[in-house]
């Protein structure tokens, strides 16, 4: 028997109500903020992710599904910001009135060790906002994410914020960080030794307990906790915090928060759930003001976020599927199918027994799957009537067929 591949899973019919719920709420909430849905291909040129996500990231170095086709290198998307930016540039969306707000949902692919809430094929829902450099966009994006999660019923949330500064002031921080970490370089894990020269900020993202112990040393913490960002970046961050305070969004400053992708600058944030253990982030995002230009577009500020839908589903639990509005009980298959199609034309969900079982079996099925049983016996058919049974109260009445109204 051929089985599902490791790190992937079937989303079965019994699980679909929660997925439909997440998707419908995304459309509802993000549309309120003026965001339009976009759907990009699930594979792109490998170069897009190498240039966009960053060739020093774990995603590009270790986790991408890349294949060669007709002398071209293609990659299944490991995240969707780079693809949305590519579409933004290619389709001339910079000519639209700012802000341009886009949201998406769909599968992503990363080759990594499967664990709770994390698969090799997983799904994300996310938002990208282009064209606004002011902190108003940062505040609205965070508010959008928080309100979406609350609409899903998640209230045990913590918002963590940090500012990575701009490329100019970040260089000073990188230099100071390398100076204090250099004496401990031989003791760091292999990944951190590689990151030390290529992207020292990502040292702070390491989950190795041994590395974390080193980074907790007083002289290193003094640099990490210092105020390295320039005056303009500091003003932007203070403005953002002012908006969040005024909007009642509770947050904490986490100076170790750097996110795992190279394109972030200034604001980065994570939203965490207290019910997920150590891997507790349900949303991550931030500002990426240089990415559009780096990928060949106009100089365009941008900010966004993404959420793992499998993690959200694990927090939301099961959701009962909606029952059919009606189940037609009849041994006259032709009349049953004709009535079913009439009801479906009126957007009424219904089924009938395709195998023509006995009445009692059909009624048993109806009681499990529908709100009403519509009984079509020979007497009803000859009189052009229907017996309607409320399967919740067991009350029933016989009415003329044209009087049937289940909407």
Describe the structure.
The protein has helices spanning 16-32, 46-52, 58-63, 81-90, 135-151, 167-181, 190-198, 209-215, 218-224, 231-247, 291-294, 309-316, 333-345, 359-369, 378-382; strands spanning 36-37, 43-45, 65-69, 72-76, 100-109, 121-130, 157-163, 251-253, 265-273, 281-287, 302-308, 324-330, 350-352, 370-376, 385-390, 396-400. Strand 3 and strand 4 form a beta hairpin. 38% of the residues lie in helices and 24% in strands. The two termini are 45 Å apart. It folds into two domains: 13-166 and 229-316, Bira Bifunctional Protein, Domain 2 (BirA Bifunctional Protein, domain 2), CATH 3.30.930; 324-403, Rossmann fold (3-Layer(aba) Sandwich). The chain is of the alpha+beta class.
N-end to C-end Cα span: 45 Å
What would the average pLDDT be, to the nearest integer? 88
CATH architecture of the largest domain: 2-Layer Sandwich
| Strand runs, count | 16
Give the CATH superfamily of the largest domain: Bira Bifunctional Protein, Domain 2
What is the global morphology? elongated
Task: Please give the CATH class of the largest domain.
Answer: Alpha Beta
> Number of helical runs?
15
Task: Assign a percent range to the helix content.
Answer: 25-40%
Q: Which blocks of ≥5 consecutive residues have pLDDT under 50? A: none
Percent of residues in beta strands? 15-25%
Major sheet summary line: 8 strands, mixed
And the CATH topology of the largest domain?
BirA Bifunctional Protein, domain 2
Short synopsis of the structure:
The protein is an alpha+beta fold and 407 residues long.
């Amino acid at each position: 028997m051929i089985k599902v591949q490791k790190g992937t899973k079937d989303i079965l019919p019994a699980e679909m109500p929660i997925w439909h719920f997440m998707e419908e709420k995304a459309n509802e909430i993000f549309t309120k903020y003026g965001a339009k849905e976009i759907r990009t291909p699930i594979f792109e040129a490998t170069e897009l992710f190498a240039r966009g996500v960053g060739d020093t990231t774990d995603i590009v170095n270790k986790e991408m599904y890349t294949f060669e086709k007709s002398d071209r290198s293609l990659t299944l998307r490991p995240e969707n910001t780079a693809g949305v930016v590519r579409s933004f540039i290619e389709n001339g969306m910079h000519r639209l009135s700012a802000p341009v707000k886009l949201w998406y949902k769909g599968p992503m692919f990363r080759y990594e060790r499967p664990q709770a809430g994390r698969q090799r094929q997983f799904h994300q829902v996310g938002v990208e906002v282009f064209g606004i450099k002011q902190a108003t966009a940062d505040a609205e994006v965070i508010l959008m994410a928080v309100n979406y999660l609350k609409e899903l019923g998640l209230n045990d949330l913590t918002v963590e914020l940090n500012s990575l500064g701009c490329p100019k002031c970040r260089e000073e921080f990188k230099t100071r960080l390398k100076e204090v970490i250099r004496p401990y370089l031989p003791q760091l894990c292999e990944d951190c030794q590689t990151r030390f020269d290529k992207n020292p900020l990502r040292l702070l993202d390491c989950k190795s307990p041994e590395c974390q112990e080193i980074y907790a040393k007083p002289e290193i913490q003094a640099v990490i906790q210092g105020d390295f960002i320039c005056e303009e970046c500091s003003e932007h961050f203070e403005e953002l915090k002012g908006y969040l305070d005024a909007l009642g969004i509770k947050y904490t400053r986490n100076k170790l928060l750097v996110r795992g992708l190279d394109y972030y600058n200034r604001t980065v944030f994570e939203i965490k759930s207290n019910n997920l253990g150590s891997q507790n982030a349900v949303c991550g995002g931030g500002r990426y003001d240089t990415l559009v230009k780096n990928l060949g577009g106009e100089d365009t500020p941008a900010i966004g976020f993404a959420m793992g839908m499998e993690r959200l589903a694990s927090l939301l639990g099961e959701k009962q599927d909606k029952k059919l509005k009606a189940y037609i009980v009849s041994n006259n298959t032709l009349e049953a199918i004709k009535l079913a199609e009439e009801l479906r034309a009126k957007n009424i969900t219904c089924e009938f027994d395709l195998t023509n079982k006995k009445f009692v079996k059909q009624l048993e099925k109806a009681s499990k799957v529908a709100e009403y049983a519509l009984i079509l016996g020979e007497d009803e058919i000859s009189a052009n009537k229907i017996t309607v049974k409320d399967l919740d109260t067991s009350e029933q009445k016989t009415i003329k067929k044209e009087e049937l109204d289940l909407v």
